[in-house]
Amino acid sequence: MTVIAIDGPSGVGKSSVSKAVATQLGYAYLDTGAMYRAMGWLCMTRGVTDPGDVVELVRGADLEISTDPAAPAVAVDGIDVTEEIRSTEVSASVQVVSAVPEARSELIEMQRQIIAAASPGIVVEGRDITTVVAPDAPVRILMTADDEVRVARRAKETHGRADAEAVAATRDVTLGRDAKDAKTTSFLTAADGVRTLDTTHIDFNQSVGAVLELVAAAQKA
């Protein structure tokens, strides 16, 4: 079973590229960020912010996530939250979960179980996959891009446009979350053995091609 681990901050193209790579290879796909978003949504709707309460909520939640790259879906306690977790409000609530080590440990264990059950392979994307969740993956990639490019991409994804107003509304949430998450996990600099893919000046198809080339090289090694 082959594991392709992809890390990086918001707006580098992790999700779209990972899904495309998984589809082309016939692999499963796991968006670990969606798991944090789902738990952030749950904390937000329940009004939970205390770290201890966050851990208990995460432990007791029934979190279901699809690994089909063609049909991504997330449900919490039987409620489909696939669309809701992409809102700016939920983005601002993710830190409530990601900043709590015990809550992260619960989600990491769940992620490892999903990875172990995947066949013939899986593309896993997030912020600590190459270093914590799957440090022994044969293919480990850190995707990066310039901040302004990332914010514009995120604005288009969230608001459907990347004009000055949308970019301004997106900048603080995007860069702010990156800065906060960087305190608990390393995803801005490649660890030893992790390949860096800068997507600032390349398009989607080129990004997918670059990842597939790295996978092919690893399989030949």
Structural class assignment: alpha/beta
CATH topology of the largest domain: Rossmann fold
Sketch the major β-sheet.
Answer: 5 strands, parallel
CATH homologous superfamily of the largest domain?
Answer: P-loop containing nucleotide triphosphate hydrolases
**Uncertain runs:** none
Describe this structure as you would to a colleague.
- Helices cover 53% and strands 15% of the residues.
- It is an alpha/beta fold and 221 residues long.
- The chain has two domains: 127 residues, P-loop containing nucleotide triphosphate hydrolases (Rossmann fold), CATH 3.40.50; 87 residues, P-loop containing nucleotide triphosphate hydrolases (Rossmann fold), CATH 3.40.50.
- It has a five-stranded parallel β-sheet with strand order 2-6-1-7-8, with helices on both faces. A three-stranded antiparallel β-sheet has the order 3-4-5, covered by helices on one side.
- Helix 4 runs parallel beside helix 8.
- The two termini are 15 Å apart.
- The relative contact order is 0.21.
